[in-house]
Write a structure and sequence with these properties.
With about 120 residues, the chain is mostly helical. The protein is about 75% helix and about 0% strand.
């Protein structure tokens, strides 16, 4: 009995890899094995960096909040502590946006958190 290779499926599988590797440099876009390795490594980096991006943004928000509260005579950690004590439930992303785009509103939040009862 002749050997069956299922050529249409094999070709489709290779074509899918080669199409995904379009735009890669040199053999990474021309040679199937090299392209497959480059794509797999790229997918690993993409998976890892989707997680890492969240850490990067959190650091950015913290830096922006810290820079905004320093002129008001308070540091970041004290500010966050005061917010939690007062029960103000704004997250760091929202606070950083307020600090950058709405300074008057951010100042009101800072004043509310530092106000004596």
């Amino acid at each position: 009995m002749p050997r069956a290779t299922n050529n249409p499926a094999s070709r489709a599988r290779r074509k899918k890899i080669m199409l995904a590797a379009r735009g890669f440099f040199g053999a990474r876009s021309k040679v199937y094995t090299v392209a497959k390795n480059a794509l797999e490594k790229g997918w690993q980096y993409a998976y890892r960096d989707r997680k890492f991006k969240k850490r990067i943004y959190r650091r950015l928000w913290i830096a922006r909040i810290n820079a905004a509260v320093r002129p008001m005579g308070i540091n970041y950690s004290s500010f966050i502590h005061l917010l939690s004590q007062k029960g103000i439930g704004l997250n760091r992303k929202a606070l950083a946006d307020l600090a950058l785009n709405h300074p008057a509103t951010f100042k009101a939040v800072v004043d509310a958190s530092t106000a004596k009862d």
